[in-house]
């Protein structure tokens, strides 16, 4: 007696986007309010199913970036983050998500589209702490996305993706402080940044007034890998204990 012919199990594929930017010096993540079940009315990451079987995953990520938020991807840093496919993560069936991390400076107020009722920038800490509860396993995805950004700031030029075309070293330091969630010594930071040849280069457009002495302007340099790396400070025992109490 022969076994029945095998057929592949039905699996649906989605893309989800962890979109990060700085707003008023705070690291923020873009969330949408779901307009339909499951989890109707709950905050979630922008994303959705593939349009058709022939759609490339990266194309779907760019499309969702535009459809869900009315943001264009032309000047947004976009990279694949991870794949999430645990059984039971979606009540609609076996759904696998290919999550992406997107970063850009000074992103505007979002406009919800397609199946989202609303969209808003939310402080990342509110998501990490659980103060804002997300649909599906999206809190885990946000946590992974922020940790990816924090880690890459140490060894890559990713921090410049949070800045405009021209920026000061003080503004670059603000990126590191917002993403890492810790204050940095200004002189030490300046010395370390200047020690990485090709990380940032002086701009030709002079200086920017900051209320005191005009600050020199820089732009992203050609180097994408930082050596020596900018190592993230280890939280003090007091800071770590306070953070764990809030979790």
From TrEMBL:
It comes from the Bacteria. PROSITE patterns: NUDIX (PS51462). Coiled coil: none annotated. InterPro entries: NUDIX_hydrolase-like_dom_sf, NUDIX_hydrolase_dom, WH-like_DNA-bd_sf, WH_DNA-bd_sf, WHD_NrtR. Residues 12-148 form the Nudix hydrolase domain. The keyword Aminoacyl-tRNA synthetase does not apply. CDD domains: NUDIX_NadM_like (cd18873). This is NUDIX hydrolase.
């Amino acid at each position: 007696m022969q076994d029945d012919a095998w057929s592949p199990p039905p699996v649906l594929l989605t893309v989800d986007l962890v979109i990060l930017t700085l707003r008023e010096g705070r690291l923020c993540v873009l969330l949408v309010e779901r307009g339909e079940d499951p989890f109707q009315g709950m905050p979630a990451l922008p994303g959705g199913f593939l349009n058709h079987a022939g759609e490339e995953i990266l194309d779907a990520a760019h499309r969702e970036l535009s459809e869900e938020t009315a943001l264009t991807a032309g000047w947004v840093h976009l990279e694949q983050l991870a794949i999430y496919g645990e059984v039971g993560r979606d009540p609609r069936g076996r759904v696998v998500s290919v999550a992406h991390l997107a970063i850009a400076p000074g992103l505007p107020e979002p406009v919800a589209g397609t199946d989202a009722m609303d969209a808003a920038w939310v402080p990342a800490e509110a998501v990490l702490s659980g103060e804002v509860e997300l649909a599906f396993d999206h809190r885990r995805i946000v946590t992974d996305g922020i940790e990816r950004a924090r880690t890459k700031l140490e060894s890559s030029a990713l921090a410049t993706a949070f800045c405009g075309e021209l920026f000061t070293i003080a503004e670059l330091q603000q990126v590191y402080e917002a993403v890492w969630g810790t204050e940095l010594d200004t002189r030490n930071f300046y010395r370390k940044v200047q020690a990485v040849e090709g990380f940032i280069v002086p701009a030709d457009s002079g200086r920017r007034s900051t209320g005191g002495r005009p600050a020199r302007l820089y732009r992203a340099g050609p180097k994408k890998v930082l050596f020596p790396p900018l190592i993230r400070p280890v939280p003090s025992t007091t800071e770590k204990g306070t953070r764990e109490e809030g979790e």
